Amino acid sequence: MPDKSRQIFQTENAKRYKATQWTFRIVGAILIFITAIVIITVLRGKNPTMPLMKSVGNSYKSKIDPSNAFTLSTPLNKKFKGFKDFLNKRIAYEESSKQHVDAKLIRAAFYTPWSPLSLLDLRSNGGKLNTIYPEWFFINPKTYRLDSRIDKEALSVMKHYGLSVQPILNNFISIPGKQGNFNGDLLHTVLHDQKIQNDLIAQIISTLKQNQLQGINIDFEEMKENSDEFLNAFMKNLYTQFKQNGLTVSIDIMPDNSDYNIKFLKDYSDYFIVMAYDQFNDPSQAGPISDQKWIEKQMDVIAKDVPSEKLILGIGAYGRQWIKDENGTRTEDITYSQAIDRAKISKSAISFDNNSYNLHYAYDFAGSAYEFESKNDVWFTDAATAFNIVRFSDDYRNAGTAIWRLGSEDPRIWTFYGRDLSSDALKKQPFSYTLLEMMPPNFNTKPTSIGSGELINILYSPEQGRTKITVDKNENLIAEQRYNQLPSGFLYEKFAEDSTKIGPGHKIILTFDDGPNAKYTPKILDILEKEKVPATFFLIGENAEANIPLVQRINRMGFEIGNHTFTHGNLAKMSPERAALELKTTRSLIEAITGKSTVLFRAPYNADSEPQTYEELEPLAQSKKDNYIAVGESIDPNDWDPKMNADSIVNRTIRFATQNNASIILLHDSGGDTRQPTVDALPAIIKYFKDKGCKFTTVADLMKVPESQLMPPVKRSWKNDVNFFFASASYWLGQIIYSLFLIGIVLSIGRMIFMAVLAWFETKREKRLWSEFKGIPDGLTVSVIVPAYNEEVNAVRTVESLLMQDYKYLDIVFVDDGSKDSTFETVKKAFDGNPKVKVFTKPNGGKASALNFGIQKSDAEFVVCIDADTQLKTDAVTKLIETFYLQGKPAEVGAVAGNVKVGNEINMITK
């Protein structure tokens, strides 16, 4: 007799358990092994070497430090022996004449909206200023009315810092597409026409009041007047009207310039801004921006006619480069950061001139395919220069200082510019010169680029600089400064330019980002194959992994492959560790699939060949660490934009190519909802450039290097094979799962149709059976078996609902399966004496054992089994029993199932 207590699947043999256990162990070990190999390959993989190419940066050769002609004995040196002697004379003169006026120092700067760095600088350092001179007011050359170009964004920053805003009014005429200039004829008309003059002044006052500004700064240059009569009259008229409206007037004057009658103007100006810079601006001779002794001389001359409290000393915070080549000598104004970057590129040593307190270096440029050989002299000022000038100005007891210009200065200036640097102030609160010895990297500095082309090589990333400062402690002056490590922003070279015009022989490169894509990449490959045109594909790692056969096809067709990261994330917003992993994983995948590595890289979101911001440059710096060449572009038709159709893509591609005379076209073979417009536009793009005689080529050809240097073969190894196996297994597993889903969907739809057909036939059959049904034989007994475990809350209600059944010959067998609560007692008490309810209890053995126990206690012909928390409709039992007799063959029906519905539809799960 079989043991009825044993479960159906119970066995004494542990073979099945051990087999399952070892299966999991083996599969787990294999997965751990493969994962370890992949991790080791990615982390320890060797980067391919960079291709052999002639770098533009190598053309810069440093020249030995030139001897400084300004240290020789000159009449100027003899007259002004030094800062100390000069100040002693000036202070003694002021104390004897009792002219000293103790007023709050003006700390001002010039703001130029045409330089994006100016606004960044204002945001960062506006709190160190109390006055600002924005270049906002111009004279319309046709109407002679005020042309106000107030930068609202900058104005809000100025007001946030509570600055006295005094816009510059000048006679500069900007010509779109051309170099603007100061126009003397324009100024002549204004000075000589009283009506025009009065209207202009009225407009200025109205605009100042409307915008709650505090005054005006007059900057008239290149005047063509035979006398100062008319300028004096204009300033008197302007000053009189401004004073009536409580507004401030300042005027810029240049040293050694006879256009200004300062003796007269001092009564009709609140301040003179002495532009003590541009000392050497002629291309014929290089020299300091503002020699300290030259400044002292100019201030001494002007101060004879103007009280010190009306003088604001202009500080030149920039540099100038003298470039001598076969076309002659020309000058270029540069910022402090550009001066430092060019010194770094050319590996030049910077000399701090002890006589002028300006800085200098020189280098030779060997020339390149894009630029002539040249000799270069660079003079510039830095924080040490500015510190000594401010010291001089504050001890001189001027009204204050003004920096020309925001965005071009040495950032270290802001460590001291907001405070008084007079001798008395420094005695009370000494200055820490160590603040000038460390130069943190400035990520907002405009990057410096050299060369031309759409390929980019990062030479230097932002890094801090170090200087050694020597201080004259008696006079609190910086006597010497040595740059031990040059600071830098981003420095990069552009190369591989095809400088020929769009036409016969001009090189065009098609590049495709974000692929491969199973739908659109094959279409693009078919077009390229038909047109016999090469291309470069920048692959996303996860897309490549999902489309391994496509990557193999791209490789077989001989197309170049580049890295576009693994997930198309913005590297500038990632941690360096994740960025490196994204690049290494994608490169390892390409190597495993193609047997070749790659040094080509394009940054997601930032593929422009003129990167200017941190977000554009940081990904390139990240890629440089792994020996990548960044491939930019100058022809981007934005084919990814859903609004673009094929015609728009073609037209924009042609327009940008013509405007930029560029070579690299950026298109996409994946991404977005559809790339069909790109597919449709491609044949027309190819036809246009072929008709123009352009040559479709590769990045390798543009660089003039063998393709094997950009995609060097990788030596096969068991690690590569394991990686390829892992990648292939993932791909095919994905394909199998995808296929199974498709099969499952087809089978599900087929099943639904099949079930619908069967249901239709069953419905027709049931209608026929019900029409012939004669009813249930009288006297058939039914027992409802109710097993329960810990159901004291629901049990009574369930039994009560069963007693409401409309079937006549029914009883209820309630079986308590050893509940730990009061289920049995509760039900027993509630239905004690009810002949239709039998209540039993037994040791706990599970639901099945309780059902079997209940069936044994019943002598009915039919049993209905339900849970202790189930509610039945009043006709439920009748319906169930009717089903046994519907076909007239009750002996052939083994069981009937009812449809149980949840009654408490009160939350997401039960619904």
Mean pLDDT metric? 86
Oligomer: single chain
Question: Which bin fits the share of residues in helices?
Answer: 25-40%
Number of helical segments with 4 or more residues: 27
Q: Can you tell me the residue ranges where pLDDT is under 50 for at least 5 consecutive residues?
A: 6-10, 64-82, 96-102
Structural class: alpha/beta
Major sheet: arrangement of strands: 5-4-7-10-11-12-13-19-2-3-6
How many extended strands?
36
Tertiary shape: elongated
Radius of gyration using CA atoms only? 44 Å
How would a textbook summarize the main sheet? 11 strands, mixed
Distance between the termini: 47 Å
Task: Tell me the fraction of residues in β-strands, as a range.
Answer: 15-25%
Outline of this structure?
The protein is α/β, with parallel strands linked by helices and 911 residues long.
Which SSEs are present, and which pair or pack?
Blueprint: H1 15-44, E1 60-62, H2 75-79, H3 83-97, E2 106-111, H4 116-125, E3 131-134, E4 137-139, E5 146-148, H5 152-160, E6 164-165, E7 168-170, E8 172-173, E9 181-182, H6 184-192, H7 194-210, E10 215-219, H8 229-244, E11 248-253, H9 262-265, E12 271-274, H10 292-303, E13 311-316, E14 319-325, E15 328-334, H11 336-346, E16 351-352, E17 359-365, E18 374-380, H12 383-396, E19 400-404, H13 423-428, E20 438-439, E21 448-451, E22 455-460, E23 465-472, E24 477-485, E25 491-495, E26 507-515, H14 521-531, E27 536-539, H15 541-546, H16 548-556, E28 560-563, H17 576-594, E29 600-601, H18 614-624, E30 629-631, H19 646-660, E31 664-668, H20 676-691, E32 695-696, H21 699-703, H22 707-710, H23 718-772, E33 782-788, H24 795-803, E34 810-817, H25 823-830, E35 837-842, H26 847-856, E36 862-865, H27 876-885
Parallel strand pairs: 2-3, 2-19, 3-6, 4-7, 7-10, 10-11, 11-12, 12-13, 13-19, 21-25, 26-27, 26-31, 26-32, 27-28, 29-30, 33-34, 33-36, 34-35
Antiparallel strand pairs: 1-17, 4-5, 8-9, 14-15, 14-18, 16-17, 17-18, 20-23, 22-25, 22-30, 23-24
Helix pairs in contact: 1-23, 6-7, 7-8, 14-20, 17-23, 19-20
